[in-house]
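We emphasize that the prediction below concerns an isolated chain of 176 residues; any contacts that depend on oligomerization or on bound cofactors are therefore not represented. The input was used exactly as deposited, without trimming of termini.
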Amino acid sequence: SDSPIVMEVEKKLGLDVEVESSMVTLQSKDGKTMDVDKKHAYISNVIKTSLENDESAKTLPVLGVKGETLKLIVEYMKHHNGTEPAIIDKPLRSKHMKECVKDAWDATFIDGIESKQTLYDLILAANYMDIKALLHLGCAKVASMIKGQPLERIKEILDPSSEKKESKEQKANKAT
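Result of the prediction step, given as a token string:
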């Protein structure tokens, strides 16, 4: 990170003008591609390091992440515009995410993920891509789900396959 003085000198000299496109294409392990501004993608330390090592890279494979998860990550990157959001206080102040995060968008984003499996995939992908703020947001969401719950309920919450069992039971109950 350059000092403001260095950035000002570069601006005056025109050194900050990028000839190359500022966009990079991220490719998921299932072949889905998403374009994102490099500035936004820098929130991922893995992407940042890859781009610093190969500035001419147009497409970066993200082999540990599925397309639907990568789409959520790109949405997160675009919203945060390449800047790290405020750290979430631990322990959580509340079971409600909007009371735990400084940016209301983060609460809406993470609360909007309906499937536990999708949430867990997002946490794993954030870890894989080294996006600390998103990793913390996902983990805080899981913590908010289990906060104050009895042990049996915590086991259900932490088991992504319990979703399938719950929906089968709900369908069976509706059929009777």
